Amino acid sequence: MIVTSRLLEYPLLAIAPGMQKKLASANNRLAVKPAITAYLNCYFHIVGIHLDDNTFSSIDEIDETLYGLEGFLLSTTNFTNIFVAQIRTKAKVLLAATIGVKWTRENHGVKNTITARQQVSVSFYKLNAKSDALLRYYSGWWIECRDGKIKFANLIDFYGCYGEQLTDQILELIKSHLIKFSHNTCHTKLVHLKRITKMMCTLYPNKEKLLLLQTGKNVNEFVEILFTNLTSYTISNGFDLKSFYYGWPMTIGLFNDMLTGTVIMSKPEWPLLCPTYTTASEHDVKEDQTIFEKAFIDVPLTFSDEQAFNSFESAINDELSFIEKCCFSACSIEINKYNEITENAKLGKVISNFSKLESRSDFTTYDVCRTWLEYKYNIADTGIFSVITKGEFFQIARPLRANTLLPFMHVLVQHHPIITPPWLIEFELFDSSGQQVNYTQSGENWIATSFKPRAKGHEQQSVVLTKVTKQIFDDIILLTKDARDYLKSIGDDSYRRLFLSGGRGFQKPAPIDTIAPVGRMDSDIFMRAVMVGNVSETFSNERVGRIINRLSLRSLRDAVAIQVFLRTISMEAVAVALGHAPGNAESGEVYIPSALRFYMMDRWIRLFQNAIVYEAMKDSPYLLHAVDFNTLEELNEFLHTHKKHYKVIPDNESATSQFGTGLKVADHDRMYIELNLAKLEVLLCIYEVIYAALKTGIEIVAAAMRWYPIATLLYRAVHLHKEGTLSSYCSRSVLALFSKANPSEQLLEKIKDVVHA
After folding, report:
1. What is the mean pLDDT of the chain?
2. Are 265 and 288 in contact (CB under 8 A)?
3. pLDDT confidence of 595, banded at 50, 70, 90?
4. Residue 733 has what pLDDT?
5. What does the pLDDT look like over 139-196, one tens digit per residue?
6. DSSP secondary structure, 400-455, as one string
7. Which pLDDT score is estimated for 665?
8. Mean per-residue pLDDT for 514-527?
9. In this model, does residue 269 exceed pLDDT 90?
10. Which superkingdom (predicted)?
């Protein structure tokens, strides 16, 4: 079937330029849609007719020229017979106008029925010679998206320049790349691809010229020309330049992932041009410099330099630490208050009828606490609210409220971003027989299991709790005990759910089915008050207010995803942290803005290429099991087994240089460090230990920090290798090392003893 919806995008190859002008003039004069010309061009091209001033000179010759048009349309489209007849009529009117004849029903010749005429036309078209290659050309090129939807890939210009074989090859590249994405993402990527192929066809209009792209340097130059051309086009047409810059990383990412290193072109000689929009010297994260507001913190549109990036990374780490600190504080207050009420109740007595008491001096706060524990949610039956207000009672007894558990939920999500709001809401602590489930012990670990309704194929997800989050679970169970006992006593099956709400404190408890954002001002949220109470010089009123307004479990989870990415630059690490299937790196893309992804990858590759090149060595004499790292000196001795760093110089010059102490080597293009499996595992452990220490405030000996930059680089390299993105930057021997690296817990503990101050 020909691609009728896209025929207007095809060039009029079967119509001479002079005739094209006549048809365009007739279109305007007779109000005939340009689609009629497109149908004619397609038909003429396939059957081998070239339309010019000599093709016909009378109505009869026009009839002869159009003899197979209806048969062609009926055979290659889904048009109805009536619509095809209308196309023929309009085409005849249009062509007649080009020879100065006004065609009417009176001069149309012998009248035939539509059915009979079309049957003859179909037979004529089938018997007539036609080009199968051009039929495929006008059928278009289609790709399937991840969700099964079909999209048109505009390769018209590409086909015209390079022919069918090369077009089929690029189509296969497009299909294999876009099958991973939704139809919306595919649509966006195809728009970017069209810009690339259009420029290719302009600069390299035939196969011979295209061979120039088999040189890496020319690939880089093509990208620079493409960028310049698109920038000029954007400016000259008054389009938003900022939007162009933000879309450029997708263009260049698509170009690199889909086209480089293929039959179309070589890999680039150096990293592809990917400039940022701003080059301002200030490093503050501005409110109007955001492209991504999914997390509670703004992600800058771009980073002008390393300091700007470090400022952003520090900001997100600081704000996550601030939230964690406030949550722990709120949790501690709730638990301490609960324990205090329990202790106070031991000193009081149960009062069954407060209304008979003559004055407030006849009872104490201890009596109120004791009576609350006895009557629980039937406390109003005692008449207590005739002698004290509900507000006073709440301050004394502090019953479970709608948002009491909110800080506990935030801690769980921040420590385990696999947890989502539905996971929390759906959590059942007891089964239908009253047995505790889903919060169970396995060996030394405690495991919590719940469901994510939207995670198809992975609805049930388990979390191995840490000591911190295990305590959070225990605290939640403690705080909901009174509500749970009450629900059991009245035969309400809702007691099985872990997260319960007491409403305004005096209502019947119920499972939480909606989790309010912290900034919801119509709700009484104690956690918000705690955050406001932590205003400081670092966290001003304005900054805390912004965090509160945007903070929810979802935005917190998104921010943690960004933090994971900044640590690993691994989309798969993000996906795994969020509970998606291993190997499904694309699922993490929705959480990380593309500009940040491209910046981080470019930054890492720049470090990897221009700072350190790792070269695998043969087995080291320092076998891992034979080395005992009792001191930092022994650790340094182990790691210092290296080749001297050297400057890359011509062969006729000597290579001499001194050993450097860090990654910054001003006069060196590259540095080589000999790397074996033992050393790699040690460096990975150093990264884990120091990263955890920096996060928790544990002091690290100064000498150990000199290994942290290189350990960080290697840690990220291992993650990138797992995603298959390092093959162009490392030798096979190094990739083999990355595959084998799996540090043991024993080694981790040994390194911890050495580097902790």
Report:
1. 79
2. no
3. low
4. 63
5. 999 999 988 889 999 999 999 999 999 999 999 999 999 998 888 889 989 999 999 9
6. --TTTTHHHHHHHHHH-TT--HHHHHT-BSB-TTS-B-SEEEETTEEEEEEE-TTS
7. 34
8. 81
9. no
10. Bacteria
pLDDT of residue 658: 29
- Written as six digits, the tokens of 712 are 């960080």
Burial 698-718 (b: 16+ CB within 10 A, else e): eebeeebeebbbbbbbbbbbb
- 327: its two tokens: 């949550």
Residue 748 near residue 689 (C-beta atoms within 8 A): yes
Beta pairing partners, 15: 51
- Do 473 and 622 share a domain, yes or no? no
Domain count, the chain: 4
Q: What is the C-alpha to C-alpha distance for residues 49 and 554, in angstroms, rounded to an integer?
A: 62
CATH number, domain containing residue 451: 1.10.443
**Runs of H (alpha helix) within 657-722:** 677-696, 708-722
| DSSP single-letter state for residue 46 | H
Q: 243 and 115 in one domain?
A: no
Q: Is the dihedral of CA 533, 538, 543, 547 positive or negative?
A: negative
pLDDT at 432 over 80: yes
How far is the C-alpha of 58 from the C-alpha of 124, rounded, in Å? 21
Q: How far is 43 from 50, CA to CA, in rounded Å?
A: 10
Among residues 556, 583, 610, which one ends one of the domains?
A: 583
235 and 213, same domain (yes or no) = yes
Q: Tell me: do 620 and 571 sit in the same domain.
A: no
Q: Are 148 and 121 within one domain?
A: no
Q: Is residue 296 one of the residues assigned to a domain? A: no
Structure tokens at 300: 């800058």
Is residue 688 a contact partner of residue 630, using CB atoms and an 8 Å limit?
no
CB within 8 Å of 331: residues ≥ 6 apart? 407, 408, 411, 472, 475
| pLDDT above 60: residue 77 | yes
Q: What are phi and psi of 382, to 5 degrees?
A: -85, -5
Whether residue 15 contacts residue 23, with contact meaning beta carbons closer than 8 Å, is answered with: yes
Residue 695 banded pLDDT, cuts 50, 70, 90: low
Confidence (pLDDT) at 447: 93
- Which of 151, 268, 251 shows the shortest CA–CA distance to 199? 251
CB proximity list for 497: less than 8 A, separation 6 or greater: 427, 428, 429, 511, 512
Q: Are residues 602 and 578 in the same domain?
A: no
Of 84, 110, 138, the residue that ends a domain is 138
**Is 178 found in the same domain as 95?**
no
State the Cα–Cα distance between residues 60 and 66, nearest whole angstrom.
10
Say if CB 327 and CB 403 are below 8 A apart. no
Cα–Cα dist 378/368, whole Å: 13
- Residues 606 and 569: beta-carbon distance below 8 Å: no
Please report the sign of the dihedral spanned by the C-alpha atoms of residue 512, residue 517, residue 520, residue 526: positive
Which tokens go with 213?
């792209």
196: how many CB neighbours lie within 10 A of its CB?
20
* Residue range of the domain that includes 41: 4-138
Helix, strand, or coil here: 177?
A: helix
Q: Say yes or no: 496 and 456 in one domain.
A: yes
In angstroms, the CA 420 to CA 402 distance is 19
Residue 459 main-chain phi, psi, to 5 deg: -60, -45
* Integer Cα distance of 725 and 586 in angstroms: 13
Least confident of 200-209, 367-376, 469-478, 519-528: 519-528
